[in-house]
Amino acid sequence: MTQIHPADIEANRHYLTLLSQTFPTVAAASTEIINLEAIMNLPKGTEHFLADIHGESEAFQHILKNASGNIKRKVVELFGNEIRETDIREICTLIYYPEQKLELIKASEHDISDWYHITIHQLVKVCRDVSSKYTRSKVRKSLPSDFSYIIEELLHERIEDSNKMAYVNVIVDTIISTGRADDFIIALCHVIQRLAIDQLHILGDIYDRGPGAHIIMDAMLNYHSWDIQWGNHDVLWMGACAGNDACICNVLRLSLRYANMATLEEGYGINLVPLATFAMETYADDPCTEFMPILLHDTNMDDKTRLLTARMHKAISIIQFKKEAEIFKRHPEWEMADRCLLEHIDYKRGVCTINGKEYAMSSRLFPTVDPNSPCTLTPEEHRLMDRLHHSFAVSEKLHKHIRALLSHGCMYTICNSNLLFHASIPLNADGTLKKVRLFNNQEFSGKPLMQHIGQTIRSAFENDTEAKERLFAIDYFLYLWCGKDSPLFDKSKMATFERYFLTDKETYKEEKGNYFKLRDSEEVCDRILDAFGIDGANRHIINGHVPVHASRGENPIKAGGKLMVIDGGFSEAYHNETGIAGYTLVYHSRGFQLVQHEPFTSARDAIERGIDIKSTTQIVEMSAHRMLVADTDMGKELRAQVADLKELLYAYRHGIIKEGN
């Protein structure tokens, strides 16, 4: 036991006096010490890590509902030898989608009262299992107010106890006889979902490609405990929300590229009619072959709509290249003036010169480009951008969602000896940390770099930020999106222009930064972990951003287990490339497990046919002993609280501080 010295008490007297207001007596302080010591000896809560969700709201929500397959595993453990596989599927589907599944069951079940009896007892058993690693207080806080007392009684009283059998049965009978069975089952299922995941970590890229980023964000607003490490696509939308016109153009371009206007129009009320009108008038004679949208999710789009989408796609792309050029020229320190490629085109000959070499262009149709001033917007383009800018500025829901990203997010997180970030840490060729220039030409690397980028992002949304600094911050979203030393990009260039307009595929190559070249090295990973102040034998880097090509045998576990890359391709656009449909990394009290998901069909299939996401679990790293709360960051905090409370006890018992009432 740590010895307490009177000098320490005197030094901390002001703080201990404040603490005494919460714990005014020896009894109160002692009770809290007992409580905290007990909590530290509970099993560690289960953390789930997901990355690169890219708007796949149905698959994402299903994985939250089934806890990456963990709920089914528990149901099988509890009932596997007692009931059929079809019944196990029915219980699981009920837990995932209680409202919808109940409607189907009531339409087909002949003896609904008997079904209610059996099902409620089964669900209580599952709930008891998932709640077993938490304190009663924590479980109580997760219970719905209408049924809090009843659920708590059922969780802690067992039908196997002959003295309580009648008591438990009467509770269940009364729930059914009073017509509350449906509401009770729904509440119990949501509690099971809630307790199956203690903490959710999202390693970036909620936005783009898929149709439901806004639906994901709505779910996150009500989720019990989550954090996000911003990804390049999240930052792009944050930039659009902050008023960066180049980011607005990129957001629109990507949405049109994947024929995904749902998040823009239905989610955030962005008015695309002005863009459609402009595109129809300006590109009426252009087939826009290179800009035909990529159709995902069995998108039903007729030829006329597809052509209009392609024309809108081209219209906003040309404006994007012009708006990007404005920002690149405002910031010569970024060394990106060479990306103003509209200025490198010979419009008569149809060639573009890059690094002194001429490349043939696939199209010469540029009705809004003045060869004498290629990066200048036409008056019509100016008016269009003003309307689009206004539409983003007044979208209340978009701003609400971006505020949620700001309040729950940052560039990196350190949690339980794990360093979480989306993409990379800029490195020199020798694996040392690279210095990157920020506002006022200040240079940072490693942890200070990530901290200052986070501060820069936040300053774009703070009204009290100095005007010059705020303008830089708004511009900087574009650098984070496509700058070669951006921790969210880390490539030589973003070859968007080349892919649209040049025929030579050699120009499409985007050379990856040193982090991606060196991340298989344990020495490099150790250097990064050291720089972020993470010690201990079992420390890791966890990130996403670059899809793991599982179909080609690529291993997501790298650098001797020091690095885990968990971008398995949630987005349908990546399924052929990765061969799978996403990863969840699960960190529970016994260690790490990587869950590899197959493509999700639909919530309707899950409800009506009991079809779950097929998931394969790979053991990554198991602990020699079961990890307790005491072994976590929370454990460190609790030990510090216990030490403070013990000082308060000493102060009470030696008359240094008087007990209250």
**End-to-end C-alpha gap:** 29 Å
User: How many individual helices?
Assistant: 28
What would you call the quaternary organization? single chain
Question: Mean pLDDT across all residues, rounded?
Answer: 92
The stretches of 5 or more residues where confidence is low (pLDDT under 50) are none
Largest sheet: spatial strand order: 7-3-2-1-15-16-17
Radius of gyration: 28 Å
DSSP strand count: 17
Tertiary shape? globular
Proportion of residues in β-strands: 5-15%
Task: Summarize the helices and strands and which ones pair or pack.
Elements: H1 6-11, H2 13-22, H3 26-40, E1 47-50, H4 57-66, H5 70-79, H6 85-96, H7 98-108, H8 112-130, H9 136-142, H10 148-156, H11 165-177, H12 181-196, E2 199-202, H13 213-221, E3 226-229, H14 232-242, H15 245-257, H16 262-268, H17 273-282, H18 303-330, E4 345-346, E5 351-354, E6 357-360, H19 379-393, H20 396-408, E7 409-410, E8 412-415, E9 418-421, E10 436-437, E11 443-444, H21 446-459, H22 467-482, H23 496-501, H24 514-518, H25 522-531, E12 540-543, E13 557-558, E14 563-565, H26 575-578, E15 583-588, E16 591-597, H27 603-609, E17 615-622, H28 633-653
Parallel strand pairs: 1-2, 2-3, 3-7, 9-12, 12-14
Antiparallel strand pairs: 1-15, 4-5, 5-6, 8-9, 10-11, 13-14, 15-16, 16-17
Helix pairs in contact: 2-28, 3-28, 5-6, 5-8, 6-7, 8-10, 8-12, 14-15, 14-20, 14-22, 15-18, 17-18, 21-22
Walk me through what this model shows.
By secondary structure, the chain is α/β, with parallel strands linked by helices. It contains 28 helices and 17 strands. The strands form 4 sheets. A 7-stranded mixed β-sheet has the order 7-3-2-1-15-16-17. Strands 8-9-12-14-13 form a 5-stranded mixed β-sheet, covered by helices on one side. Strands 4-5-6 form a 3-stranded antiparallel β-sheet, with no helix packed on it. Strand 4 (345-346) and strand 5 form a beta hairpin. Helix 5 (70-79) crosses helix 8. 41% of the residues are buried. The model has no long low-confidence stretch (mean pLDDT 92).
